[in-house]
Write a structure and sequence with these properties.
alpha+beta, Alpha-Beta Plaits, 4-stranded antiparallel β-sheet
């Protein structure tokens, strides 16, 4: 049975909160405590302790760097032996760790350095960690993947939107708004929200680990829960417990359908020329709507009307709402975010006596083909050219023989 981890991050997340949560879930504590030595970081040690944050008992993992003892758990520190990407990758490569931990840790480090390089406009090889103490970051990233390996976690999901905080922080480049520039870069395409505190709630290291570890940013899938882990952050704020919660379990059969967040855009009209409706649907589909359709409805005062509905990725919702506002007679549009469960999908070409036909396939989480359907337009094109029925082409394509 494959173990699944679902994250709930009401107070955001940092590198040390990742470690605390995974230790609380039962990760190999001795392996983590030995990690600084394995990485050759003689000036670094880990302090693992039970603490309270508000109503929560939690595990706190402090990465203590000699000379920085008065600022544990903060990513704002001095440079170190892993300050440049090439140095960090070399340290990881030399360490007595599994191939999987090395590869995944290196990928996360690269994501972090690439984000820093982009936002500061400098070459990757010249980028060094300003906002993150290099040794602290190395321990957080490698430690997270080492802990995931010891827990034998196969997949990870995370609830959204992610709270990123607000206000400003002072870094090596001066005062910058929250979320920090590297965090903004790393969380591209993920639903976020401001607040709930005027503080930095997601750090660059925390964001890099989210981007590299999480498979799906979605609601919690159907799972049989076995354990909950609470990781504490360094900050202790009475207004909001500074914790990250991980829920560990085994996915049920229903969870074989991955979920993701989508936008649903709707409006009703009762005074529109029906001839204009197909034009609006075409515009919505051309503007990246995943689906668009019209439903007959009965509106106020018994008037027959039309309900326009478009389904899209979150990033495309505003553009589709604008199309409905401009090309229908509506005065307002509803936009909401929903969770959608769907089969994974791909497309393959199969040969027929009359040429190739694309086959759309629905795939389960483990890659099993659960449904296959020939592309209608391909079948119709061949049918018209060869004077055949569409169904005959479709059946031959499903047989996959020529």
């Amino acid at each position: 049975m494959k173990r699944h981890l679902h994250l709930q991050l009401p107070s955001g997340i940092s590198g040390d909160m990742w470690l605390g949560m995974l230790v609380d879930l039962g990760a190999d504590r001795k392996a983590l405590e030995a990690l600084p030595t394995a990485l050759g970081l003689d000036d670094v040690r880990l302090e693992i302790a039970r603490v309270t944050r508000g109503a929560f008992a939690a595990t706190r993992v402090g990465v203590i760097v000699r000379g920085n003892e008065d600022r544990p758990g903060q990513e704002h520190g001095t440079h170190g032996p892993a300050a440049h990407l090439s140095d960090a990758l070399a340290i990881i490569d030399r360490a007595p760790l599994s191939r999987g931990v090395k590869e995944k840790s290196s990928q996360a480090m690269r994501l972090l350095f690439e984000a820093e390089a982009k936002v500061h406009g400098i070459a990757l090889e010249k980028t060094h960690l300003h906002e993150a103490s290099a040794e602290d970051t190395l321990i957080d990233i490698v430690g997270a993947y080492l802990a995931l390996e010891t827990l034998e976690i196969a997949s990870v999901s995370c609830a959204t939107p992610l709270p990123v905080g607000s206000g400003t922080i002072e870094v090596a480049h001066g005062i910058v708004p929250v979320p920090a520039p590297a965090v903004v870069e790393l969380l591209q395409g993920i639903a976020i929200e401001s607040g709930p505190l005027a503080a930095e709630m997601i750090t660059p290291t925390g964001a890099a680990l989210l981007r590299s570890i999480v498979d799906e940013f979605s609601d919690m899938p159907a799972m049989t829960l076995s354990k909950t882990g609470i990781g504490a952050g360094y900050r202790d704020d009475s207004r909001l417990p500074n914790v990250a919660r991980g829920m560990l379990g085994v996915l049920t059969e229903a969870a074989d359908l991955p979920s993701r967040r989508i936008a649903v855009i709707e409006t009703c009209v009762d005074d529109m020329n029906p001839q204009d409706i197909p034009v609006v649907i075409e515009r919505l589909l051309d503007a990246s709507a995943r689906d668009a359709f019209v439903t007959h409805v009965l509106m106020k005062k018994g008037r027959p009307g039309y309900l326009f509905t478009a389904i899209s990725d979150l990033d495309d919702a505003e553009a589709l709402a604008q199309i409905l506002l401009e090309h229908t007679s509506t005065l307002g549009v509803r936009v909401r975010e929903e969770s959608r469960r769907e089969w994974r999908r791909d497309s393959i070409d199969v040969e027929t006596p009359w040429g190739p036909v694309r086959i759309k396939r629905a795939l389960s989480r483990d890659g099993r083909v659960v449904r296959a359907q020939p592309e209608f337009e391909d079948c119709r094109t061949i049918a018209e050219r060869e004077d055949l029925s569409v169904d005959e082409v479709r059946r031959r394509a499903l047989r996959g023989d020529s």
